[in-house]
Backbone:
C-alpha cells in the first residue's frame, strides 16, 4: 500500500505552436492540423515534417515550435 501511494502517473502532452514574424498564428494539438492550417502558404508539408525530429523548425517567416507539458495525475 505504501508503494502505491508514492507512484504517480505523468500525462505528457505535446502542442505545436506556429509563429509568423514572431506573432502566434495558432496552437494545435496535432502536427497534421497545424500543417492543414498552413495550406496555400509557403510552408513544408505534413509528410516532410513528420520525418524530422525537432523542437523548433524555422522556414521563411514561419516558425513551428513543439511545446511539451507534463501533468501529474
Residues:
Amino acid at each position: 500500500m505504501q508503494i502505491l501511494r508514492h507512484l504517480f502517473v505523468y500525462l505528457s502532452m505535446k502542442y505545436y505552436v506556429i509563429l509568423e514574424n514572431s506573432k502566434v498564428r495558432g496552437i494545435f494539438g496535432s502536427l497534421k492540423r497545424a500543417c492543414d492550417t498552413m495550406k496555400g502558404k509557403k510552408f513544408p508539408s505534413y509528410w516532410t515534417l513528420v520525418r524530422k525530429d525537432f523542437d523548433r523548425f524555422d522556414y521563411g517567416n514561419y516558425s513551428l515550435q513543439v511545446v511539451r507539458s507534463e501533468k501529474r495525475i
